[in-house]
Amino acid sequence: MRFMTTSDKPENAGGTESADTADTAGVTGIAAQDWARASADPQYRAAVVDLLGALAYGEMAAFERLAEDAKLAPTLADKAELAKMAAAEFHHFERLRDRLTEVGEEPTRAMEPFVDALDGFHKQTAPSDWLEGLVKAYVGDSIASDFYREVAAHLDSDTRGLVLAVLDDTGHAGFAVEKVRAAIDADPRVGGRLALWARRLMGEALSQSQRVVADRDALSTMLVGGVADGFDLAEVGRMFSRITEAHTKRMAALGLAA
After folding, report:
1. Which of 3, 65, 86, 227 is 20–30 Å from 166 (CA)?
2. Which among 75, 40, 51 is positioned nearest to 163, based on CA atoms?
3. Interatomic CA distance for residues 160 and 178, integer angstroms
4. DSSP for the chain?
5. Residue 104, by phi and psi: left (phi above 0), alpha (psi -120 to 50) or beta?
6. How far is CA 207 from the centre of its chain?
């Protein structure tokens, strides 16, 4: 997962309005500024560097995981599809790495604070088979992407555009839905196991995201309104409610009970 990275947009799974929509609405404050103006605030700059660092390591981890999952694929065609998606994730990583360098930050240093949390999440949620890997990529990564899209609505225009671009679906969403639904149709008992797995992923992903944000002062300050146009505490609660709702709709798309 990207930080709590291949995913679909919430609306593609019947979810709620995303930051993509918000980006076209009337914006004010930091969201109406470009990076050159917004980054004059050192706290905002620090928050964005954290955000890009988390995303960059998440994309690197997604590349590694998809390449590993390809080994579990039952056919050569499936292996090739996952390899293509892995390549897309690495391209996203390169864009984030290059952006960090462009704004005068060392990419490795920006990613390092998130290595332990992300590696821990992936270790705790290692799939036992091909289908669990697909559900993890579709459900787990999408939760992270929903979170980033929510945050993106409050970012400067340059950063917002980059974040939304690297969250674009690499094709995994439709691929995962097709394969998982076919497996459930072939053996309905698979559905119960995968539903339990998806619920575990949901809990782990939300817990990890909250923990990472709490550990990074700049990020947490931005989220509760202390920097730029962040959320207030009530809006944080509504944000996680929207993420949960989108998760429920993705589960339905897979043919699983939330």
Report:
1. 227
2. 51
3. 31
4. ---------GGGGT----HHHHTTS---GGGGS-HHHHTTSHHHHHHHHHHHHHHHHHHHHHHHHHHHHGGG-SSHHHHHHHHHHHHHHHHHHHHHHHHHHHTT--HHHHHGGGHHHHHHHHHHT--SSHHHHHHIIIIIHHHHHHHHHHHHTTS-HHHHHHHHHHTS--SHHHHHHHHHHHHHHH-THHHHHHHHHHHHHHHHHHHHHHHHHHH-HHHHHHHTTSSTT---HHHHHHHHHHHHHHHHHHHHHHT---
5. left
6. 14
| Integer angstrom CA distances of residue 91 from 7, 63, 94, 247 | 15, 9, 5, 26
- Any idea how long the chain is? 258
- pTM above the 0.85 mark? no
- HSE (side-chain half, CA atoms, 13 Å) at 137: 32
pLDDT at residue 171, as a whole number: 72
Task: Categorize the per-residue pLDDT at 226 as very low, low, confident or very high, splitting at 50, 70 and 90.
Answer: low
| Per-residue model confidence as pLDDT tens digits over 189-202 | 999 999 999 989 88
Q: What is the largest CA-CA distance in the chain?
A: 57
Tokens of 156: 């400067």
Tell me if 146 sits within 8 A of 163, measured CB to CB.
Answer: no
Query: What does the pLDDT look like over 125-171, one tens digit per residue?
Result: 888 899 999 998 888 888 888 888 888 888 999 999 999 999 877 67
Distance of CA 168 to the CA centre of its chain: 10
Is it the case that residue 73 has pLDDT exceeding 70?
yes
Residue from 82, 251, 81, 256 nearest 185 by CA: 256
